[in-house]
Amino acid sequence: MPSKTSFIKAGINGGILRNDIKSFGWLGAAYLLALLLSFPLTILMIYSQEQQRVNANDLLNQGLQLADHYLPLFQFNSELQLILFLTVPILTGLLLFRYLQSRKAADMIHSLPVRRETLYNTHILAGIILLFVPIIITALTSWALVLGLGIEGVPFKAMMMWLGVALLFNLLLFICTVAVGVLTGISTVQGALTYILLLFPTGFMVLLLDNLNTWLFGFPSGFYEQSLNFSPLTRLVEIYSNPLSGTEVAVYLLIIAAIYLLGIWFYRRRRIEMTGNAIAFEALHPVFKYGVAFCTMLLGGSYFSSQYSLGWTYFGYFLGAFLGYYLSVILINKTWQVFNRQVARGFAAYVLIIVVALVGLNYDVLGYEKRIPSLANVETVYMDYSFHRLINDPEQQDYYSDQYRRTPKMIYMGPDNIGRIHQLHQAIIANRALEKKQNSTNNTYNNRYVCLAYQLKNGNVVYRSYYIPQDQYAAWFKPIYESQEHKRLLYDILNIAPEQADFIQINANFVGRNVKIGSPALVKEAVQALQRDAQTRTYEEITNDSSWADIEILLSSGKRISLAWNKGDTVFEDYLRRINQLNNSRIMVEDITSALVGKTATPSTPATRVITTKEDGTQYREMEESGEYLKITDPQQLEICLKVSTFSYWQEPIYTIMFLLNNGNVVSGAFTSETIPEFVKAHFGQ
After folding, report:
1. In total, how many domains does the chain have?
2. pTM, whole model, 2 decimals?
3. Could you tell me if 424 and 528 lie in one domain?
4. For residue range 344-358, what is the model confidence (pLDDT) as tens digits?
């Protein structure tokens, strides 16, 4: 009796708990069976397959190699596991609190001499038992198999991490379902709202960031995209490639505690007669109405903004808000007859508030778009194409295991470059009216992102992001790109000593030849040549990514550096010529039968910017059959075309050139307005 009394005082009713387990034990059993099929059985299947490929003695010695087959199971790289974790906890919450959605069941349960807190806690404990026991049994069974079969390379830590994450997300989804069930009176609405709320952090942020991009010039949406993984559903799917951090676990635990407390607070105040209503609390009706209207408004604006017209964006806002507002009113009132003055006045008030907000954003009443930190207050500046390298730890980025690693953050500390970036920022702001107009159209072929993060001396950070035409700001980019600080940040080759390199391999593009250099003296000389080329590259060469070959440098530490041999790297070219390896390191005129040059019909087509290889001469024959081309067979002209043809990302191609190789392959490139040879201009009368 004392134990029973203490059990009740703890907020748990033993009779109700046993009844829940008896009524819904089948769900826990089914969950256990499904988990066993998705985890231990899969381990046995993989082990059996390996047994058929190698004998048992060799299998036990493969260790880490076999871990590549087993570890993904412990890292949520199983579709069946994900489906179970995303559905069973929610189904459990729906079933255990189904009585809240039925008037008769609610009357009967709440007529028992049991406090509401006890009912709430007892059903939650039953759900935890139904979910946790199958997961724990599965973990123990799987680990027993790993030990029993002698599978090496799967650490106990991996098993414990799987167990912890599985318990955490099952509890989170279950608690969310329970809380939503308290707030609504219809089971279908409970299930739908649960998934909507679980996706809400990601969905809402996507829509909000997309719309702020439209209205706030310089808004750094890319920086805030790190919050897009905070939705439990999307985060669980990405755990395989991006494991949970300790901070995330702590945040999720706090969220679980907060949702539990909110749920029990609302449960105490829920009226039984609200069963059957979409929203069980009248005080939440305005929140639901205007919340749905705001989200659907953002959705409509994002969809129609793809037309690059503010008129269509406005239409999307109005249509989305109208549909969201009136559909939510219909759901709350359970009738289609909602088109009356009272409802219309509520919608009109909402529209008025949104119009005022949009006008304020459009005219930058808060001064956000014009705000720029004072140069005297800036300590360092980050500038890159995105915020990815600023946000992500380089140790957690995708590298090959032997790839040379450094801190690849484009953070400028020199006062000269900080001043130049500040001037670039001022120039962008001065042209903001023009840039906003161009960004609202589809004429953004030459545009690039400029992402800025000012680290101020007081510890604050100011973030901005712009999408601007590269060539129009070349005068500001040029001194930054040609500075040695920028080149050291950009090129790995400038961050090593030549003596650190042990071996070099050069893989020529398009012709399948390669050169291997192992002599210490020649390797050192090659690295020095590459470093001199990198140090003297011009802005135009840096932004033009045309290259002759890919280079791999093996360091004495076992790491390797990958880089491209750019067409403008003349010091390295002279080095290769001196050691008689130039012909083996790049495509040569001797590899080419002929070339065709034609005007680019659709310059904005990405395919014209990327050098590709086709096994047949289809592209070549199509241009040849068109009759509008210049055919080149002269070796000197072919060499000129090889050197100046490009697939630069930032410049629009004017002419397409196709090289027909002796082996029948076709390599296609392009000439921009700056790289067109004189004989090509003369032929086409330019």
Report:
1. 5
2. 0.78
3. no
4. 899 999 999 999 988
